[in-house]
Amino acid sequence: MNCRKAVFFLCTAIAMILLVACKGNETEKDDRKVKEQWAYLEDEKTPCLKLFEDGSAAFKTEKAGAAAKLTNYTKYELTDEVLKLTAEDGSVTEMKYYDTDTGKRYVYQKITLDYYSGDDSSTLIGAWTCDNEWSFQFSDKGTFLEDGLWAGYFISNGEGSLRLVYDNRVFSDIILYYTLENGKLILDYPFGMVKMQ
């Protein structure tokens, strides 16, 4: 009889532990009503930007990676050219964006690359890299190589702006903005999104 009680209590304890563990893994339910949501072109089934009817938002940067969660913002403002996200602490993130005729939205996100090699880190010409494996090489002949894979040529589009024309034509031409500061290349790079239904 004591053996049966011990087995019963052991099974009950295991069941309770499993119940608590499973309850802790539940995702937080979001009851806010979605006004519109967007996904990165690389993963059109996972939202990266949600705009809610109450004026709040949730966003995940491209650099964050697929496993990262959306970050909540208490307020968003969307003008014809800029998306502003206000965090709970009052800090504001501003990102330029543009919409295309094909229904895509390109949101500019900052990427900081360190000078890797070349003649002079005060010019764009040379190799640039950062810790999340992004890299760019710009030559004095007007060519570029992105991430060691995507080649093309670049055209100055005014002070601090470049048009990248990819050789493979898989990617559309893009305009990026840049600044050079103390051996760092700070890019505003456009990441493509598609509106989700």
Report on this structure.
The chain has 197 residues and is mostly beta strands. It has 2 domains: 34-108; 111-189, no CATH class. It is built from 1 helix and 15 strands, in the order αβββββββββββββββ. It has one helix at residues 2-24; strands at residues 34-40, 47-52, 57-59, 71-73, 75-78, 82-86, 92-99, 104-117, 126-129, 135-138, 143-146, 150-156, 161-166, 174-181, 184-196. Strands 8-9-10-11-12-13-14-15 form an 8-stranded antiparallel barrel. The radius of gyration is 23 Å and the shape is globular. Mean pLDDT is 83; it is low at 18-28.
Q: Give the SSE string.
A: HEEEEEEEEEEEEEEE
Strand order of the largest sheet: 8-9-10-11-12-13-14-15
- Enumerate how many helices there are, as a single number: 1
Give a quick account of the main beta sheet: strands, pairing sense, barrel closure.
8 strands, antiparallel, barrel
What Rg is obtained from the alpha carbons, in whole angstroms? 23 Å
State the domain count. 2
Low-confidence regions: 18-28
User: What shape does the CA trace take?
Assistant: globular
Mean pLDDT: 83
By DSSP, the count of extended strands is 15
State the distance separating the first and last CA atoms: 60 Å
Class computed from helices, strands and strand pairing: mainly beta
Q: Percent of residues in helical segments?
A: 10-25%
As a percent range, the share of strand residues is over 45%
